Amino acid sequence: MIKVWTDADEAGLLDRFGARGSTFAYQTNTPPLRAVSVTMPVRLPSYNASFGLLPIFEMNLPEGVLRERLRLAFAKATGTFDDFDLLGIVGRSQVGRIRYTGAQEKLQESVPFQSIDEILEKRRGGDLFRYLLDKFASFSGISGVQPKILVRDEGTSVPLNKADHRLSQSYQGATHIVKFWERHEYPQLAANEFFCLKVAEQCGLEVPPCRLAEDALALVIDRFDLRSDGTYYGFEDFCVLNAKRTDQKYGGSYETSIMKRFTQFASTSQVGEGLERLFTLIVINCAIRNGDAHLKNFGIVYDDVQGEARLAPVYDLVTTSVYLPKDSMALTLNGSTNWPTTKELQRLGETRLGGSPTRIREILKRVVDAMETVTAQLRAYIRGHPDFEDVGNRMLAQWEQGMTTSLRP
Ligand SMILES: Nc1ncnc2c1ncn2[C@@H]1O[C@H](COP(=O)(O)OP(=O)(O)OP(=O)(O)O)[C@@H](O)[C@H]1O
Ligand SMILES: [Mg+2]
User: Residue 252: how many CB atoms within 10 A of its CB?
Assistant: First the structure.
């Protein structure tokens, strides 16, 4: 049995159920604002899944290298190793506002310290990743296939006002995400992602501060769900909003599973501006040739599960076609995963955003301008980093193609 906490308060109990499923029930007297998801209001009857975990509980389970690492470390101790076991291991430190403990345990969120500067400056190469993985894997309730961990930066833990006890104690949880890459499979992935995120930033979208390590072996990203008082915002990805399991993250369309779904869950005051930012993000994904923009790579954040939800800041942008030249989109547009033409993006904007033809043309133009600005930065980086030359030049070729076929009139 696992106890589920929201905003550091008890919300309910989760248990295995049936042959391969699970069940969740709110505790009596749980107030509505303790709900675990915008899709699961507080109610008397339990919520059941006949296979695995409900999407909100599965949302932050590690995939890829991190999951395998935890399996090797814990399978012996637990005897089995399924999603339920994994949640029990990484549950105390998660992206967003939900935490998990044993049924009788108190919540203890504290994550060990780790200097971000050390990650950015020290050239420990492959050893740094192994060291960090050993230390932080079991504090890394974060999804995704690429190797990554959650850490707590020492700098961030310094209380702003020493007299304020709450503040000094508040940074118990992780403050940053550190992403690495598989040398052979995805060379230079960190630098690739860094410059793709720059495009979004240049378009005026909200991108959390991120830094590339000197040796480009790691990308360090500030958590966008961390409040200044050390507590966390609610975060839910579009797998959850579409009631899909993680292994269904590639099933959906931009029109319905992303744009329409956003309007259903975002607060009315957010729909106009948020929808325009969402459309801009979709356009960027197409133009930089990101074939991995699946349902888990879009999300919403909120202060209060019953209150205003807004589009989450931008994360996980990569020119994947550098590694997979034949790559196509993760979600469909117009029923197809082919990279869209300018006309198709124009139509998506006019119909789903409801923008005038001129307004949509302006958005496409803004993305072209941003990509041209970042192209100059990327060229400068290539000159100083010969290791990046091959991937960098291939990115530029993909971007040029993306701008020509998907953005330019
Ligand atoms: N800055 C951030 N703050 C808080 N949560 C984040 C942030 N960036 C990413 N996340 C969360 O972490 C998850 C994994 O991050 P990310 O998508 O960058 O990893 P990935 O391994 O590249 O993913 P994929 O499997 O899509 O390739 C995201 O789906 C999101 O839930
Ligand atoms: Mg991702």
Answer: 20
Q: Could you read off the pLDDT of 316-339 as tens digits, one per residue?
A: 999 999 999 999 999 999 999 999
Q: Which domain holds residue 373?
A: 234-406
Ligand 1 atom nearest to CA at 316: 18
Is 201 part of any domain? Answer: no
Examine residue 202 and state whether it is found in any structural domain, yes or no.
no
Residue 31 lies in a domain: no
Question: Which residue has a Cα nearest atom 26 of ligand 1?
Answer: 144
CATH number at residue 357: 1.10.1070.20
What residues does ligand 1 touch, defined as CB less than 6 Å away?
63, 95, 142-146, 148, 177, 208, 221, 223-225, 237, 292, 296-297, 315-316
Give the ligand with the smallest distance to the CA of 299. 1
pLDDT reported for residue 158: 40
What kind and span of H or E run contains 376?
Answer: helix 357-384
Measure the CA–CA gap between 118 and 220, rounded to whole angstroms. 11
Number of domains in the chain: 1
Ligand 2 center from residue 172 Cα (angstroms) = 25
229 located within any domain: no
CA distances to 112, 202, 206, 337, 365 from 292, rounded to whole Å, are: 32, 21, 20, 11, 23
CA 409 to ligand 1 center in whole angstroms: 33
Model pTM greater than 0.85? Answer: yes
Which one is predicted more confidently, 184 or 21?
Answer: 21
